[in-house]
Amino acid sequence: MKIILKVDGGIGKSVAATAVCKAIKTQYPDSKLIVITNYPEVFDGNKRVYEVVRHNELNYFWRNNIKDQPDTKFFFQEPYLDTDFIHRRGHLIKVWCELNDIKYNGELPELFLTHKEISSFGINLRQSNKPIMVIQTNGGLPNQTDKYSWPRDLPYGTAQQIVNVLAPHYNIFHIRRPDQLQLQNTIPTSAEFRQLAVLIALSHKRLLIDSFAQHVAAALGKPSVVCWIANVPSQFGYEMHNNIIATPPTLEPELRGAILSMYNTNGPEKEFPYNNEDEIFNIESILAALGHEPAPALASGAAPTQRLTNPAPVANKKTGKRKSK
Known about the structure:
Layout: E1 2-6, H1 11-27, E2 32-36, E3 51-53, H2 61-65, E4 73-75, H3 83-86, H4 92-99, H5 115-122, E5 132-136, H6 156-166, E6 171-175, E7 187-189, H7 193-202, E8 205-209, H8 212-219, E9 225-228, H9 233-236, E10 242-245, H10 283-290
Parallel strand pairs: 1-2, 1-4, 2-3, 5-6, 5-8, 6-7, 8-9, 9-10
Helix pairs in contact: 1-4, 1-8, 5-7
């Protein structure tokens, strides 16, 4: 029997979909799981997946998967449009599984990096004997008119102040596209997806937002500090992370354009519910979550800490509550 899972959306959603794949194969261990996605590189090395097909490469799809194959199952439902998801009644992965009558057992995303990938790209990450820190401040689609989306992105001033404190102790790699704002005292990084996954795997600390990197960190078992504004970790996050929730709004926003969620992720100015960006996060709280103390330098010739295997399953309550550290 074939099961075909269709994944729309960005690369972070494809990473989250690897948890759905795990749940599917648990329930249907003898099935041939085919994934349709725009990001096949996410599934490299994933033995749960029989085949990966890009959205624009569906030639002979009917002939190969429908004709004379009445037992083929199609999991094409869009979880973002599900009633429970819109009402924030469950995590994306849980809702996605239940839409397809798949039992959800707290599965986490998973990525499979080879030793060759880690050694080949990892050697380029060594800037000095300082350990590696990763920061992602911005998400969204390429070439946005507004380089900053307040419901999702880490405010530039907040991020720069944090970097200024930690830069003496870490080589800080800033995950960003060339069209996004650059932080001073960081190493701008816009590598391919799997190279970025290696960077996250080799990093000592991570400061992330609700974008693909926090899904990758969860898939690699790398607890991170993740900052949230419009979205909530109970829907998109992971309990292993230290989830920092934005301070409550100080102004009443204009929500005339809100449709399926309170705020639009493209960040229209009229919806901005603060006096200024400095009100969104408490910098000291973020620094405390990161462990605001000098990290131990690497001994000469030593390799950064590596986690090459996938994390063991952990309880994932996804409460959305801020964790103490």
